[in-house]
# Entry
Amino acid sequence: MTKKIKIITEATGEVIAELTEKNPKTAEAIWNALPFEASANTWGDEIYFSIPIETDEENAQETVNMGDLAYWPPGTAMCIFFGPTPMSRGNEIRPASEVNVFGKIPVDPKVFKKVRAGSKIRVEKTE
# Structure
């Protein structure tokens, strides 16, 4: 059974995401650390925020897909990708450096465009 998480902000309400099998160590570390809450940072069409885990690169990627959830090892941060970043070339979505993709938002992730820097963001397990 696929594990699901809720990403909650005032601007978006609850958004359900699914953990993937692509990077199982990263996904398990994040699952075990839930719930957590942080202040959102924005970088182009990406939200990122510090989370209470530290793990190494695992099948790290230089580019990601729309709606990917990833862990950024250098910043010990969770990232939500919903469009190009300042590092993107053309239509690609490029993080600041390689990330471990661990999840996917199955609905339109552009809802996260409404989230502003400094907004509270909470991530928890679904029931």
About this structure: The longest strand covers residues 13-19. Helices lie at 24-33. The beta strands are 4-9, 13-19, 36-39, 41-42, 46-50, 68-72, 77-81, 100-104, 120-125. The longest helix spans residues 24-33.
